[in-house]
Amino acid sequence: MTNNNSFRNPTLSAKIGMVILSIFIFCAIFAPIIAPFGEAESVGKTWLGPSSKFWLGTDNIGRDMLSRVIFGARMTLGVAAICTCLSFLIGVTMGLLAAVAGKIFDQVLSRFVDLMLSIPILVFALMILSMFGSSLPTLIITIGILDSFRVFRLARAIAVDVVVKEFVEVARLRGEGYWWIMRHEVLPNSLPPMIAELGLRFCFNFLFVASLSFLGIGIQPPFADWGGMVRESGRAISFGIAAPLWPALAIGLTTISVNMIVDWILSINARPSGASAEM
Amino acid sequence: MLRLILTRIFLGCLTLFAVTILIFAATEILPGDVASAILGQGATPETLAAFRIELGLDRSAYVRYFEWLSNALQGDLGVALTNKREVLATITPRLINTLFLAGYAAAIAVPIAIFFGIVTAINEGKWIDRAANIVTLGAISVPEFFIAYILIFVFATKLGWFPSLSTVYSDMGFWQKLHVVALPSITLTMLVTAHMLRMTRASVLAIMSQPYIEMAFLKGLPRNRVILHHALPNAAAPIISVVALNLAYLIVGVVVIEVVFVYPGVGQYMVDGVSKRDLPVIQACALIFGGTFVLLNTVADILSIMVNPLLRHSR
To answer: What is the pTM of this model?
Structure first.
């Protein structure tokens, strides 16, 4: 078992996950080269079935589904990745600061986060995006901030355990500042459990962006994105056209493969010799 | 115990109050100029000025907040900007529809999830546990609308058992309604069951690793008896909070599902309001969703206080 759990030898499901995810990332980066047709180009009749020319058929205004799915990887994966980075940047910084900077600061921040989490995140996002409009920067900042509250909770919980260790105490006695302690003592010791969380938060944000786009207030046309594509072709399913299933399948495959990789990373962390079995 | 419960109720009311402030702040203070946020950049200065007066934006924010709050408490949720109809009159039948859908899904999901959650925990590592793990992980990982469209594709388009759109009328018979709403409620059931089953399993397993369970096994008691008499009474509190937590999840899941099936509920009303930037509608829907969320969380806490054996006998 211990041999299986090293970074050299991923489990079978983790390997499958990595392969699927790499394919999607490859599509995202090289979309203009791989895609047989353009992103917003009408190339045939509407609602054509799968054929040798259009592998996945065409959509409501005659665009090639396969090309749209390939281009969609860019927007959907890209936006979710940026949101996750932003949310970790805010969440981890504030979480570690709350653990290091003393009780009052911690209490104020924690109660504030409790309050922000008392409204369902989707309802919150709907409210904000309706008033600010859903341009790409607004979308990313909104999701990033809303998600950072959850990251904050975890980061704080982990950091609170690290802060009471002797080496942090020594650093404090040496007269190091909050920022130095956070960066050099607390952060490295909180990272291992945070890495698995990064994958899970990515899945959540990814599904969240897709849902918002599906509701029509996420990524806006003419950009292809998987959630929006399901929205555009959704009604066709009543007529037996499978078009909305392809982008939806791409969304599902992505989250499942990230989950498989996260499971494997978690099993490494849970090793007796590993840094932490937290979570 | 009574004191604990009263404290929790007080905290719940406080949270509810804070939620109203949050909703008001997010919709009327954060955007800066609400009038131009709603009308967009094409609006002329005259229409903007007239619209500001219509919204009452000439008064200060806290006056407007307390007016909005006291009106909402008296059941006056304002008038929709787009069609000038009372929000309350529109939202009440929709709320009943949403509660019908959520209740329908919960009635199927809760018994299945608790039963299989306990069964998988008892059979940890056996084939039924593995199968449940794969199925639930799959259901959690894919977006709601993917499950919904697959169900529509198979059961509405190919087999023709159910309608693909869930249009309900107020004069529809109960059984007919159950039939029309079947697909959205099955979709919701699958999602909620998956979450609930996994969490139930985890909380039963957490109890099973306690020393007193090991003691019961060491006494030589049969497995079934240990589980039914020793583990389950203590697992009740975590299971109840799992159920409540997932019912809270249900009200969010309902938004996307209602849009997929064009079901006339609060979720669809909110999405409509959002796309038309209809401020009173958004506020009213957010208030209902936020309020239900807080209510369910509070009820969960109170129930788990009540069933906790350690707190049952007051000192």
So the answer is: 0.84
